């Protein structure tokens, strides 16, 4: 219950940021210099980047029982941090065994397949569906045959 509430709050914050940064107001443009939250996030982009990495890590490598709730803030976090998401994606792929890197790259491609840079309900629902498949594929891969590569557990794959 707490996790669901935290995800809902985070979703409201990042949705507000996305809409503020990407939509015009009735007057033309939003005054981004007077919005305190926007100013903080522009001066400290690592805050949103860490949130993105944390939510993605939980969804990918932990027993996430609130997948729908976790998916809601993830899409705006990705859209707000698209370049960082690309870096994170490459980092995760490169940390996989060579024989699993191609599959991981395909799963990331499929995660964003058909996703547009907006937060419309239809787009969010499509992302949530893609995320379910993404998570299932990752979990199936982690349950696969274990090889002794000297690496750690899956949850250690995304440390910043």
TrEMBL record:
Q: Which family does it belong to?
A: Belongs to the exportin family.
Q: Which GO terms describe its biological process?
A: protein export from nucleus
UniProt KW Transport keyword: yes
Q: Which superkingdom heads the taxonomic lineage of this protein's source?
A: Eukaryota
Species name = Cherax quadricarinatus
- This chain belongs to the protein called Uncharacterized protein
Alphabetical keyword list: Cytoplasm, Nucleus, Protein transport, Transport
Q: Which PANTHER family does the protein's record reference?
A: EXPORTIN 4,7-RELATED (PTHR12596), EXPORTIN-7 ISOFORM X1 (PTHR12596:SF2)
Localization? Cytoplasm; Nucleus
| Any GO MF annotation of the entry | nuclear export signal receptor activity
Any single GO CC term annotated in Swiss-Prot or TrEMBL for this entry = nuclear pore
């Amino acid at each position: 219950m707490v996790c669901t509430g935290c995800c809902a709050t985070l979703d409201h914050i990042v949705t507000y940021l996305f809409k503020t940064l990407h939509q015009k107001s009735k007057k033309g443009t939003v005054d981004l210099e007077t919005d305190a939250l926007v100013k903080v996030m522009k001066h400290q982009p690592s805050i949103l980047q860490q949130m993105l990495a944390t939510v993605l890590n939980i969804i990918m490598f932990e027993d996430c029982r609130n997948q729908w709730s976790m998916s809601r803030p993830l899409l705006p976090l990705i859209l707000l941090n698209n370049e960082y998401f690309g870096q994170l994606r490459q980092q995760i792929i490169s940390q996989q065994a060579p024989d699993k890197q191609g599959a991981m790259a395909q799963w990331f491609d499929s995660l964003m397949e058909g996703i547009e840079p907006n937060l419309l309900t239809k787009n969010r629902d499509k992302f949530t569906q893609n995320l379910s498949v993404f998570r299932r594929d990752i979990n199936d891969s982690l349950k696969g045959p274990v090889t002794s590569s000297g690496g750690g557990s899956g949850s250690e794959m995304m440390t910043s």
